[in-house]
Design a protein that fits this description.
two-stranded antiparallel sheet; 14 helices; alpha/beta
Amino acid sequence: MNFPKDFLWGGAIAANQYEGAWLEDGKQPNVTDILVGIMSRKPGIKWNEETEKYEMCLDPELAYLSHEAVDGYHRYREDLKLMKGMGFNSFRTSIAWGRIFPNGDEEEPNEAGLAFYEDMFRCMRELDMEPVITLSHYETPLHLVTEYGGWRDPRLIGLWNRYVETVVTRYKGLVKLWLTFNEVNNLFRIPLVAGGVLTVDHPKDPSDPIGSTTKQDIWDAYHNILVANAWTVKIAHEIDPECQVGCMLTSSSVAVYPYNCDPKNVFGALESQRMANFYFGDPFCLGIIPTYLNKVWKKDGVTVTFTDEERALIKENTVDFFSFSYYRSSTYDYDYAMRGDTGGLVGKENPYLKDKAPQPWGWPVDPEGIRYTLNVLYDRYHLPLYIVENGVGLDENLNEEGTIEDSFREHYIEEHLKNVSLALEDGVDCRGYLYWGPIDVVSAGTGEMKKRYGFVYVDRFNDGHGTLERKIKKSYYRFKEIIESNGEALEEKE
C-alpha cells in the first residue's frame, strides 16, 4: 500500500446531524432544523399574510429527529474517545453558525457557542486528532433565510465574514484545516439547504417556498458564495498564516461515465461534470469563472455580473486544498433523464458494476470510481486532496448477542481504500480519508436513523425512541486494523 506516514485517517460528521440540542445555550434554528430531511419538499415554514413574512411552522405529525439527533452536544467527549479507539488521527465536524451568531446578523457572538466548540476542539487535540472543521454544513441560520432570502442577498457576505473572523480568531492554533461550504455544488438541486435560498419578496406561491425560488435567485447566491469563499481564504490567512482553507464539493458527479461511446453521451458526461462540480471547483481552485457559464446564463435568462474587484478577489484567494465526498458513480445517456439525491447523480444502471449496497437504498458501489475521481481532480487542480466523506448506509439492528456483523461495510471500505492506494501510486497527492459517518447519526437526505453508516451503533430509531447507548460494530475492529497498519492490513485479504 502507498499511504504516506502522515496520512489522515479519521471520520466525518455534521453538527446538524449529530449534536441535537437545537435550541440549547442560545442557539436559534437553522435551515435544516425545519426539514425532516434535506431532500424534503415540505419545509417547516409558512407565509404569514399579515406580516408578509415567512415564519417557522413545524408539522406536529412529522419527526424532526435532528432536533435531538444522537445527543452529541452532551456526549462528544465519550464519542471522540471511541473514535480514538480506532486509531483516528483526525476528525471532521462542523460549527453550527447559529451557535455562534444565533440569528446570523448579531453584532456580538454567543459565548456559550464559542466555548462549546473550543472544548470540543481541545478534546480532539488531547486525543491527538487533527480537527478538520467545516464552517457551513447546511446550517445557515433560519433568520437569514426568512429575513434576507439566504445567499441570494449580498448582505450575507458581510455577515459571513464577521462569523469567519470570529471563529478563526477564537480557534487559532486549535484548528489548522478549515473547509468553507459543504457540498455547495448542490445549490441547484437543493437551494434552500445548500444556499439558504428563499424568495422573500413577493413569492409566486407562498404555500410552496421551494417552488417559488427563481433561477435568478440561485445564480445570485452562486455569485455571492464565490465572493464569500474568497473572503474566507483571505481572512483566515491574515488571522492565522499557519492554517489552510479548502473547499468541499460533492464529487460523485465527477465519476459520470458516458453510458456508451456515442459522442452525444461523451459530451453529455462532460457537461454533467461541469455543471455538477467544476462550475464551483474552477473559481475556488483556479480563481476563474468558467466561460461556458455564459451560455448557461443566457439559456436560464439570468444576469450574473462580477465586478473587476470581485474577479480579482476570487483570482487572488484560491483555496489551499480540495476536499470532497464520493459515494457512487453514475452514467450519462442523452435519452435518459438524470436525477440526483444526496449520493450524487443517478443515471442508467451501470451493467459493469459488481456490487450494490443492500436495499432499501441500493446505491451502486463503484470503488474504482474513487480512483477515477481522485485522478481527474488532481489533474485539473494540482492541489492536495482530502476524501472527507465516503461510506455506506445500511439498515442494521443488534443481533441476539447484542452485536452487529457488518461485513458489507468492511468490504466497501477495503475496496475503496485499495483504489485510493492505486491513486496514490498514480501520483495523486491525496492526504486523508475521513469516513462518513463513523458513529450513527441522523441521515441528511431522509432525516431518519434507519440508514446507519457508523462503526459505532447508536440506540435510537425513526420514531424517536431509544436509549442513545453506543455499541461497537464488527467493522470498528477492521478499520482499526487498517489504520494501525497504515493500510498494510488491506493486503492481507488480497
